[in-house]
Amino acid sequence: MRKTRFSIANESTDPIFVGYTDGTKWNGFENPYFTLEVAQQVLKHYQNQPCEESREQWIDWDLTPSTNFDGQDLYFFGGGFVWKEDDTQEQLEEILETITSRILLKDLTVFYPEKYEEIVPFLRDEIIKQLKEVM
To answer: pLDDT higher for 126 or 70?
Structure first.
């Protein structure tokens, strides 16, 4: 299992939910697992949507744990919904890598050429850590 973020693939205005993936897919779409707290948020959102047809799919949802990971009960929400994994974090990391490579490279090679191999990965990792904490 890997922690990640999910949203319904066809609704760009839908919220993003933090969950877990085991890497499996249903019909090409993600099979997310959520903690009880997040599962309740998912249900609250979709059980109160304006479209009655869509809302009905979520009304009688069985909140029975599907698996346990790292001491947490997880609830399966895949197998019939068009979930996609949110890749915002990966995009931010790619942007950060570009910034690190272009801006810091220039300054560090001028001022600290002997320390470049140590400093750049450290700075990149620290910035990524800070980004993950705010996301």
So the answer is: 70
